[in-house]
Structure formats: structure tokens, C-alpha cells
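Q: What would this complex look like in 3D?
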Amino acid sequence: MKNASKINKLNKKGVVDVQFNWIFIMITGFVILLFIVSIVLSQKKNSDTQAAYSSMNQIVTILKGKQQAGNVYSEVSLPKTSMSFRCDPVTNYFTFKIEDSERIQMPLEIIFGPRDVVSSKVQFWSQSFDVPFPVTIFTYMTTANSIIMIYNNTDSSNAQKLFDDLPSNVTKKITTDFNVIKDYTKYKIVCIEGSCPTSSISREYIKISPAAGLYSYGNVTFYTKTNTVQGTVPYISKASLLGALFSDNAEYYTCQMNRAMIQYEVKRSLVEKRLELLYDDLNPGQCKVSIDVALNELVIPMRNSVLSWPSITNIYSKSYGIDAGSTSLTVSNMDLTLGSCPKIY
Amino acid sequence: MLIKRKNGQVQLGESTAVIVVVIIILFFGIIFWNKINSSDIQKINTESQELSVIEIANIVSELPELKCYEVNVNKIKCLDWYKVLAMNATVNSNGPNYEFYNNYFKNSKITIRQIYPTSVNITIYDSKLSNNTKTLLIPIPVNIKDYVHKTTGYGLIIVEGYYKG
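A: Here is my prediction, written as C-alpha cells for the whole assembly.
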């Protein structure tokens, strides 16, 4: 009996040994599997990050390249990518994100376009924002599946001019037939005051109301599908007007213009300081007088024009201030050149 | 019975030894993997910092706030002396202009060194970093125009980029 129970005990130990071995093997196998899976996952994450990073680099390089020259058109072809651009109206921070990557801040670039883009082909175009000294380069962004429709029911020459000045690579039509936008996922309907739809069109559109010439200054009204006003914002110069054309809404446009006006004040202050230094070093004579006039009657008053991008209540006074100052500076600059004097900008 | 019991103990010992060896190999594998990854990241980081200094040097020489206003077809860049002085006066202090140009010039010091007709150094931007370990220095030859005295001198744009090596 005793022997039988001993044998039984030893058999049980053997069973425990064998089971223990299997448990060890399973644990080890699991650890090895976990290690391999973690390597595969980290590699996948790395390659995803790299792909997003290289796409982002490509876009950022183009956007930064645009900062160097005006009136340049370019396209980027990518695998179908989602991008989001945000401009914070409180902080004026402009950020950009591609897919699920980290949001990156773009402190200098002024980009007008849709806030969210999902496309395999993105089109960029740039215009220099000069008043009249160079302030910055505006970049306009659109996609191949977007259309700009210029609504023109009165053969307005301004509408035709606007149509002609848009780059030929961007999909654009000048018509009164709304069927042209049917095949596109995004559209922008634009009209010039006086040649706009007379009744509700059940589509979003923007109305341009020039105060002087089309490209001097005025305001742009954004309408919703129900024909209610979403916002009325001022524009100054061609570059700024085109910004409204490419922007998703009034808030986004205003935010980008606020950022542009911060740059305007920096550049204006440099022009002011340079004129002061020129005035100090010039010998008495016509050049000194002209520089003094340009400084005190044009450049310094332009300081007060834009402490922030004007609201609709003071649009005309402030935009007019910049526009008038800009026109006078152009004339003065030409006069200084003819008088063999140092130029203002 | 004793032999069987010993066999069982040997098997258990072998298994434990195998597991210990495997764990040690895995441990070294993880350390090796991390080292390779971190050295790659450091290399990429240093390269990108060096590239950003080169980028700053390119930006400085092309800034409309510093360039001569004539359309220049020469290979040598041209700076307007009074624009340089204006930038020195307005940017080189902690005001809004400094904050704005910080977006362009980041952790760097930019000096315009006039060599001829007179030797003058004008610092137009200085991030004043002292704890950084390395600097990359890029000199770019430039013409410097003085529109008041109607002279053209020459000098250098010196870009010193601070970065952690």
C-alpha cells in the first residue's frame, strides 16, 4: 500500500514537471511573440510617421518656398491625404496638420484656402502683398476637385478681370449657369456688386464690393446657403481680395489678414526707421525735404491705420488710409528716383 | 524512481536555463535596438539643426528688408546699408520686431561685417544663447550699398547658428 502511494506521488510529480515545462514554454513563447509584435508595431508606427513627415516636409517646403516669390503656381501630388489648417482668431496662431501627425505652427506663412483638405493633388499659387513696400507673400491653396465660379449677369468688366487674373491651372468658370459646379466636391461662387444673383440661389457665395478700383480696397460679404450674411470683411489690394476668394469663411480670412497686418506693422516700422536714418545723414536739399515729407506725412500716419485689421464699422477710414498712403508712397518713390535721391523702399 | 526524479529535475533545470538565456538575449536585443534608434535620432537631429542654420543664411541674404532695391542680376548679393542700420535699431532689442524675426532666425546671431570702405560690425539679430554647446558659422560675401554717399562697399553676412551637438 505504502509503495503504491509512493509511486502515485512520483507520477503526479512527473505530471507537474511536464505541465510546468509547458507553462514555461508558453510564457517564453508569449514573451518572444510580444517582442516581435512590438518590433513590428514600432516599425509600422515609424514608417507611418516617416511617410507623414515626408508629405508634411514636401508641403512645408512648398509653402515656405512660396514665401520667397510672388505669382508662382505649383502643384503637389500625394497619396490621398487629409490636411487641416487652423487659424486661431484669439492668439493668431496658424497651425497645420497632416493625417494624424503633430500639429505644426506656421508663424510666418499666410495661407488662404479650405480649412480641411482631402485630396491627392493640391494646387498652390502666390501673390506678393505690397502696400507698396513688400510685406509678405500670400499663398492660395485649392484642390483639383474644387471650382471657382465667377457669377456675372451684367458683363461686368471687373468680373472678367478677376476671372482673367486667376491662374489658368485653377478650375474656373465665368457664367450664370450653376450646373458647372455639379461635378466638383468644393465650389466658390463669386460675384461683383451689381452683377450678383438677384434672388436666393440656395448656395454659399461671396460678393465683392469695391470702394474704388477692383484691386484698391473695399469689402467682401460671405453669404450662407440661406442667403443670410455670414460676415462682411474688408480687403486691401489684389493679394488680399484673392485671399477672400480662396478662404473657407469670413473668420478664417480675417484671422489670416490680422496675421498679415502684424507683419505689415513690422515692415512699416523698418521703413520708418530707415527714413529717419536717411534724413539724419542727408545734406540739406531737395532729397532731405522729400524724405522728410514721405516720413512724416505718409509712413508715420500709416502706423495708425492698422493696429488690427479693421472691422466693418471703420473699414473705409482704415482701408482708405492704407490705400491712400500706399498710392502716395508709390508716387513719392518715383519722384525720389527721378531726383536721384535714395528711395523709400 | 530516484533516476526518474533526477531526470525531471534536470529537465526543469534545462528549461530554466533556456529561458534565462532567452531573456538575456532579449534584454541585450532591446538595449542594442534602443542604441541604434537613439543614435539615428541624434544624427538626424544634428543634421537638421545644421541644415536650419544654412536655411537661415539663405533667408538673410534674400530678405527684402535688407536687400538693395535695384533688381540685382549679380551673383553677389547686395544689401542696403540703411536697411541694415534700421534693422539693427529696431530688431536688436526685445520688442515685437525681435519676436517677429525670431520666427526666421531662431537660435542664431546675425552680423553684417562691412570690410570696405570701413571696417564695421553691425549685429542685426542675436538670440543670446549661452548654454549651447556648438555653433555653426556661415559667412556669405555681399555688396553693401550706401545710397546717401552713393558708394558700394563689400562685406560679409555672418550667420552663427547655436545648437546642441
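A: To summarize the key features: Residues 259-338 of chain A form one domain. The radius of gyration of chain A is 31 Å.
Q: Very helpful, thank you.
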